[in-house]
Amino acid sequence: MKRFPLSLAALGAGLASAFAFQPAGWWPLMILAIAMLCELVARAGSLKKALLIGWLFGLGQFVIGLNWIATAFTFQAKMPPSLGWVAVVLLSLYLAIYPAMAAGLAWRFGEKKRLALVMALTGGWAITEWLRATMFTGFSWNPVGVTLVDTPLINVSRWIGTYGLSALLVVIAGNSWLALRQDWKPLAVTLATAFLLWALPAPPGQASSADSQVRIDDPGGTVLMRPIRIVQPKIGQQDKWRPGFEEEAYPRLYSLTMKGPRITPRLIFWPEAAVTEPLEDGRQGAEPYAEAERLRATRALQADDVLLTGGLGFTSSDGQTIDGATNSVYVMQQIGQIRGRYDKAHLVPYGEYLPMRPLLSAIGLSRLAPGDIDFADGPGPRTIQLPGDWGKVGFQLCYEIIFSGQVVDRNNRPDFIFNPSNDAWFGRWGPPQHLAQARLRAAEEGLPVIRSTPTGISALIDSHGRLLQSIPWQSAGVIDATLPNPLAPTLFARLGNLISLTLGFLLLAAAIALNRRARYRAI
Asked: Less Cβ around it within 10 Å: N or C end of the chain?
């Protein structure tokens, strides 16, 4: 093939692969697309062309898969909505560098041996996805392994993590390409290995640090274990920060919180920034207003209920002016008592803070979240002991949940993870993609994940990554359920991304050895 058809085929394969992610969820497309990528890299003829092929593949995948980012700009009055698609393309131009590097490694160490090409692409893919999650604050959205969340192979992530799962998908695709060339042995070995990893028993389930029975005051006299309620109030981004809208928002939250028969105690979950006025304020004379807001937020609670809600905190170094803000999750009880707080650590650049603010604000750019004060980052994953007998909770606020290996305090393992989010920004494609990545965190860590969002998709996910209950996008409702128990720490929970990185480098080393051997034989 000539250069242009190769390039066009790479771009087309990348575009098609984006539909393997949610909401389409046609996961076999990713296997077909990466098999096509193997063929294109094998035909590249030079390292430069192989890099271009990988880059175009990534560009097509990211431009389509990240289209939801453009929707966020429609809620920002200070910048034209057309900038949304400019942002999608610019971000994709950068993110495509990572699959380009994987393709370059595949050509460089697989030019003499097709099996070596597959091994190098697989190892390079695991390493470069980890790099994408790490470099320049990281953006690990949509690793290719997440397309397998609705297949039994999601269970493999408990052993090798997300980037290992991506490597498994790539090696299945690459060996399928080899099988089409009459070499079936690598595919058979790969599928057998995948089956063994899937068939290995999960770590035994363990009781939470607290298992308490509570009673529903209902004629049926039903008894539930650790009842929870997840609230989705259907509050759109166009309304959320509108002056005075809290007078409408609170009644929605109250009515959903109190709906149905009396259950006590309950663990109640509200979304990210469900309370839009500060729950804490460091300015002199402002604390009475924050205290009143805390009382207002907990008005719907019954005795011994515990509320976990997203909220804001303001800081002031001089006691007069606001010099910082935190995007936080508050653990609260009746009469506005704060029992714990988690501050978001992995902030969204251009969303929650504006890098190089003096320069960018001077040319008219603004962050997407309303206000001119940048959020301050918290210290990282934190586990909080809940009041009473509820056990321990870990927090990941909004898109923090996408970072594999970075969601849990490994020195103080929680019983479950709460992931409040505001996916109202992100159109139709963003929420199901976010949910899929939360499911992958649950499976690899062996911990239940609870999601509460204002417009969906709120969900209860068990420690195997299974979706137990959910509230559809753009609906109001609640999930009443029992808090699932965690598993004992998985292999990934103990070793983290060391597993997938080791696997990646071993595969690269094996590819180098195979390629060198083939080269010597050719001499």
From this structure: C
